[in-house]
Hints:
- There is one protein chain.
- The protein starts with a strand and ends with a strand.
- By secondary structure, it is of the alpha+beta class.
- It has four helices and ten strands; from the N terminus they run E-H-E-E-E-E-H-E-H-E-E-E-H-E.
- It is 17% helix and 38% strand.
- The chain has a single domain, classed as Pnp Oxidase, Chain A.
- Strand 7 and strand 8 (116-117) form a beta hairpin.
- The strands form two sheets. Strands 1, 2, 3, 4, 5, 6, 9 and 10 form an eight-stranded antiparallel sheet that branches. A two-stranded antiparallel ribbon has the order 7-8.
Amino acid sequence: MLKRVMPDSLLFEVVNIWKNRWLLLTSGTMEDCNMMTVAWGSIGCMWNRPFAQIVVRPQRYTLQYLEKSESFTLCAFPERYKQDLRHLGTVSGRDCDKLADTSLTLKASSSVLSPCYEEASLVFECRKMYAQNMDPACFITETGSRVYPEKDYHRIYFGEIVKAFCV
Protein backbone atom coordinates (compact mmCIF):
# COMPACT_ATOMS: atom_id res chain seq x y z
CA MET A 1 0.00 0.00 0.00
CA LEU A 2 1.40 3.37 -1.01
CA LYS A 3 1.49 6.20 1.53
CA ARG A 4 1.46 9.86 0.68
CA VAL A 5 4.74 11.59 1.46
CA MET A 6 5.77 15.21 1.21
CA PRO A 7 8.03 15.54 -1.86
CA ASP A 8 10.59 17.63 0.03
CA SER A 9 11.04 14.89 2.66
CA LEU A 10 11.80 12.05 0.24
CA LEU A 11 15.12 10.30 0.64
CA PHE A 12 16.33 7.85 -2.00
CA GLU A 13 19.22 7.21 -4.35
CA VAL A 14 18.32 9.61 -7.16
CA VAL A 15 21.05 8.59 -9.65
CA ASN A 16 20.39 4.90 -9.04
CA ILE A 17 16.64 5.22 -9.66
CA TRP A 18 17.26 6.81 -13.09
CA LYS A 19 20.31 4.84 -14.19
CA ASN A 20 19.58 1.35 -12.86
CA ARG A 21 15.93 1.02 -11.85
CA TRP A 22 14.34 3.27 -14.49
CA LEU A 23 11.05 5.10 -14.21
CA LEU A 24 7.84 4.79 -16.17
CA LEU A 25 6.68 8.11 -17.62
CA THR A 26 2.96 8.32 -18.43
CA SER A 27 0.99 11.22 -19.88
CA GLY A 28 -2.58 11.61 -21.04
CA THR A 29 -5.73 10.40 -19.31
CA MET A 30 -7.08 7.08 -18.06
CA GLU A 31 -8.97 6.76 -21.35
CA ASP A 32 -6.11 7.80 -23.65
CA CYS A 33 -2.53 7.75 -22.46
CA ASN A 34 0.89 6.56 -23.49
CA MET A 35 3.84 5.50 -21.44
CA MET A 36 7.56 5.00 -21.92
CA THR A 37 10.43 3.89 -19.74
CA VAL A 38 12.87 6.69 -18.97
CA ALA A 39 16.41 6.48 -17.61
CA TRP A 40 17.50 10.11 -17.96
CA GLY A 41 16.21 12.99 -15.89
CA SER A 42 16.49 14.66 -12.53
CA ILE A 43 14.60 15.33 -9.33
CA GLY A 44 15.17 18.37 -7.17
CA CYS A 45 14.02 21.90 -6.44
CA MET A 46 13.29 24.56 -9.08
CA TRP A 47 11.50 27.87 -8.59
CA ASN A 48 11.00 26.91 -4.92
CA ARG A 49 9.02 23.82 -5.94
CA PRO A 50 9.88 20.11 -5.84
CA PHE A 51 10.25 19.00 -9.45
CA ALA A 52 11.04 16.16 -11.81
CA GLN A 53 12.77 16.92 -15.08
CA ILE A 54 12.29 14.52 -17.97
CA VAL A 55 13.57 14.44 -21.55
CA VAL A 56 11.80 12.91 -24.55
CA ARG A 57 13.12 12.55 -28.09
CA PRO A 58 10.97 13.96 -30.91
CA GLN A 59 10.25 10.56 -32.50
CA ARG A 60 8.74 9.10 -29.32
CA TYR A 61 4.96 8.62 -29.40
CA THR A 62 4.72 9.79 -25.78
CA LEU A 63 5.80 13.28 -26.87
CA GLN A 64 2.41 14.07 -28.42
CA TYR A 65 0.72 13.11 -25.14
CA LEU A 66 3.08 15.33 -23.16
CA GLU A 67 2.42 18.24 -25.50
CA LYS A 68 -1.36 18.10 -25.11
CA SER A 69 -1.49 17.17 -21.42
CA GLU A 70 -0.99 19.41 -18.39
CA SER A 71 0.54 16.58 -16.39
CA PHE A 72 2.63 13.43 -16.29
CA THR A 73 3.45 10.75 -13.75
CA LEU A 74 6.73 9.04 -12.98
CA CYS A 75 6.56 5.62 -11.34
CA ALA A 76 9.21 3.28 -9.97
CA PHE A 77 8.59 -0.44 -9.54
CA PRO A 78 10.02 -3.41 -7.69
CA GLU A 79 12.73 -5.32 -9.56
CA ARG A 80 10.29 -8.06 -10.66
CA TYR A 81 8.76 -5.57 -13.16
CA LYS A 82 12.06 -4.87 -14.96
CA GLN A 83 11.01 -6.85 -18.06
CA ASP A 84 7.74 -4.92 -18.24
CA LEU A 85 9.72 -1.66 -18.10
CA ARG A 86 12.11 -2.92 -20.78
CA HIS A 87 9.11 -3.76 -23.01
CA LEU A 88 7.46 -0.36 -22.44
CA GLY A 89 10.71 1.38 -23.32
CA THR A 90 11.33 -0.47 -26.59
CA VAL A 91 7.88 -0.98 -28.14
CA SER A 92 5.93 1.96 -29.55
CA GLY A 93 2.34 2.66 -28.51
CA ARG A 94 1.73 3.73 -32.13
CA ASP A 95 1.92 0.10 -33.18
CA CYS A 96 0.06 -1.76 -30.44
CA ASP A 97 -1.44 -1.65 -26.96
CA LYS A 98 1.94 -2.22 -25.36
CA LEU A 99 0.57 -2.03 -21.81
CA ALA A 100 -1.61 -5.09 -22.52
CA ASP A 101 1.59 -7.11 -22.97
CA THR A 102 2.72 -6.37 -19.40
CA SER A 103 1.54 -7.23 -15.90
CA LEU A 104 1.00 -3.55 -15.01
CA THR A 105 -2.40 -2.04 -14.20
CA LEU A 106 -3.35 1.60 -14.80
CA LYS A 107 -5.03 3.48 -11.98
CA ALA A 108 -6.23 7.04 -11.59
CA SER A 109 -3.88 9.50 -9.96
CA SER A 110 -5.14 11.54 -7.04
CA SER A 111 -4.28 15.06 -8.24
CA VAL A 112 -3.47 14.99 -11.98
CA LEU A 113 -5.25 13.52 -15.00
CA SER A 114 -2.30 11.37 -16.09
CA PRO A 115 -2.63 7.89 -14.58
CA CYS A 116 -0.20 5.86 -12.51
CA TYR A 117 0.04 2.10 -11.72
CA GLU A 118 -1.25 -0.27 -9.04
CA GLU A 119 2.11 -2.07 -8.90
CA ALA A 120 4.26 1.05 -8.45
CA SER A 121 6.44 1.40 -5.36
CA LEU A 122 6.98 5.14 -5.93
CA VAL A 123 4.69 7.62 -7.71
CA PHE A 124 5.30 11.25 -8.59
CA GLU A 125 2.23 13.12 -9.83
CA CYS A 126 3.59 16.08 -11.79
CA ARG A 127 2.04 19.21 -13.26
CA LYS A 128 4.02 20.60 -16.20
CA MET A 129 5.79 23.88 -15.44
CA TYR A 130 8.18 24.36 -18.36
CA ALA A 131 9.12 22.83 -21.71
CA GLN A 132 11.92 23.60 -24.12
CA ASN A 133 13.72 21.92 -26.98
CA MET A 134 17.33 21.09 -26.24
CA ASP A 135 19.68 23.51 -28.01
CA PRO A 136 22.66 21.68 -29.57
CA ALA A 137 24.68 24.91 -29.58
CA CYS A 138 24.70 24.87 -25.78
CA PHE A 139 26.74 21.68 -25.36
CA ILE A 140 30.08 22.47 -23.74
CA THR A 141 31.59 19.00 -24.22
CA GLU A 142 31.46 16.42 -27.00
CA THR A 143 28.41 14.83 -25.33
CA GLY A 144 26.04 16.30 -27.92
CA SER A 145 27.73 14.76 -30.94
CA ARG A 146 28.25 11.45 -29.14
CA VAL A 147 24.70 11.06 -27.74
CA TYR A 148 22.85 12.64 -30.68
CA PRO A 149 24.46 11.38 -33.89
CA GLU A 150 21.03 11.64 -35.59
CA LYS A 151 20.51 15.16 -34.20
CA ASP A 152 17.26 14.03 -32.56
CA TYR A 153 17.67 16.27 -29.52
CA HIS A 154 15.33 15.80 -26.59
CA ARG A 155 12.50 18.07 -25.55
CA ILE A 156 12.93 18.95 -21.86
CA TYR A 157 10.02 19.14 -19.41
CA PHE A 158 9.97 20.32 -15.82
CA GLY A 159 7.04 19.10 -13.76
CA GLU A 160 6.17 20.24 -10.27
CA ILE A 161 5.75 17.19 -8.05
CA VAL A 162 2.32 18.00 -6.64
CA LYS A 163 1.94 14.67 -4.82
CA ALA A 164 4.28 11.78 -4.09
CA PHE A 165 3.55 8.28 -2.81
CA CYS A 166 5.87 5.44 -1.80
CA VAL A 167 5.81 2.09 -0.09
